[in-house]
Write a structure and sequence with these properties.
This protein has helices spanning 3-23, 30-46, 57-75, 85-89, 95-111, 117-120; strands at residues 123-125, 130-133, 136-139, 147-149. It is mainly alpha-helical.
Length: 151
């Protein structure tokens, strides 16, 4: 499965769920509506989204269109209204920020021993790696914190 196929499948499933939620929107409270949106739509966008790191803009825009379509539904806004402030009120970030956040959480869990061993075993702190600068071995403690993947 290519990345384009994966993103297309996620977007299609999310819009189908959004259509089903929209059909019963009037009989749901706002809390129930938010619960359904988070369970059926946002969870699909966020599932395994760390593999989406580095995808190009068109695929990010397709995923973002799903999150943008959720806002008018939750706030009962008309489609002609401006939706820019609505995702902010939902505390929803854009797709690239969601992917970056997921990668940070994954790295944090690896470094603190709460991630599965097959993930945590391949990472080192740069302070644990010796570097050679001008033929003088030194520790990377003075460098900014980063992660080195073992070869």
């Amino acid at each position: 499965m290519t990345m384009r196929t994966h993103v297309t499948a996620v977007v299609t499933a999310c819009f189908a769920a959004l259509h089903q939620i929209r059909s019963m929107q009037r009989s749901l409270s706002r809390h129930a509506l938010l619960t359904l949106v988070r369970a059926l739509i946002v969870s699909k966008v966020d599932y395994c989204n760390s593999v989406l790191a580095g995808i190009y803009g068109q695929l990010q825009d397709q995923l973002q269109s799903v999150l943008n379509a959720v806002a008018p539904l939750v706030f009962s806004a008309r489609w002609s209204e401006r939706i820019t402030p609505l995702p902010r009120e939902l505390h929803s970030s854009r797709v690239p920020e969601r992917v970056t956040f997921r990668l940070y959480v994954l790295a944090y869990r690896c470094l603190h021993g709460t991630a599965p061993m097959y993930l945590a075993g391949g990472l080192l702190r740069t302070s644990d790696v010796y570097t050679v600068v001008d033929n003088v071995p030194s520790r990377a403690e003075d460098c900014t914190f980063s992660i080195v993947v073992r070869q």
